[in-house]
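Incident log, entry 3
Record: Rhodopsin domain-containing protein (368 residues)
Problem: checksum mismatch between cached and fresh output.
Input:
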Amino acid sequence: MAYGGDVNRGPFLTTINWVFNAIALVAVLLRLASHHWRESQGWKKDDAFIILAMAANLARAIYVDVTISHGLGRHLEVLLEENPSGAIALLRLMVILQAIGLWTFTLPKLPVVALLVNIFGRNSKRLAIILYSAVGALILLVFIITITTFVQCTPVSGNWTGKGKCWNKNINVDLGYLAGSYSAFLDFAFALYPVLQVSKLQMERSRKILLAGSLSLGFLAGIITAYKLSTISSITDVADPTWATVPLEVWNSVEGTALILAASIPLTRPLILSFFHGIQALTSRMGGSSASGTAKSSKSSHGRSTNRSTNHKRLPSNGVSNSTDDILLHEGSGFENCSNIEAGNHRQSGPGIYKTVDILVKTKTLST
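Fresh output:
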């Protein structure tokens, strides 16, 4: 992959950077809109997490543009010939960019964990402790790498001037491999867990696949992270870092977006379903009297209503089909009425997985 040609990779990086960040931003806005459209309890912890993660991605996106305007994506030799002081300033900006980029694959883990805990661990503190501790370990590791990115040289300016005493550059590179590998492991683990949980639910296979797929987008993020690790070696190219590190920044943009999508897409489902139900309702109304007349004629010819039993109770509607996967993905009181299937049969409302028990009743005619 050429990553934008042999002269200036900057425009290519700019395009990738903003296209993927725009996708991530749309996903976050839809997630927040869906959440607060169905919720009346205000902002929650997971909202703060996703906003923080998106803010980190946007901060990096803006900073990438700044470095590109200073020459990122061009060969260092050319930059030194044109403007030596400008090239040194660019190298300083790149050190800061490297530190910011570490957080774009770290912070999006928090809303993913919040989603898993809200769905699968509301009644168990153990899951929350395990998942948040796992992410906490990554945050601690990334914090250490952020510090070492600057202090590996004495004075700190030695990181971009080449003057001073510096550690072996492989130390920070190895720490980067460690953080990236652990991040990929968490992505795969957080994607696999909901698949295993959904597989235990009693629902149609097609619905299981759809639900599990929406909750396991972390697999894509894990694959991207694993591939990105192959580009980390580029930052050791001290001869031409302004050119060689572009692939790493490209995959940082893609990875950050994949993680944001993994945390956002599942919670946009109620809004998307409502949109399509609204389209269907509008289409139905546009059918007008012809559809209504057909329905009445059909009822008359059969001599009965489609609601054949008075023993069946209709579940309240909130504007969106209250299917099992909607209940599973919803956070809050929007589906509270679904918890009472029959009078006197109460179940705690809110998110979680509920097991459906089918009871088979057999009747036998007794002869007298």
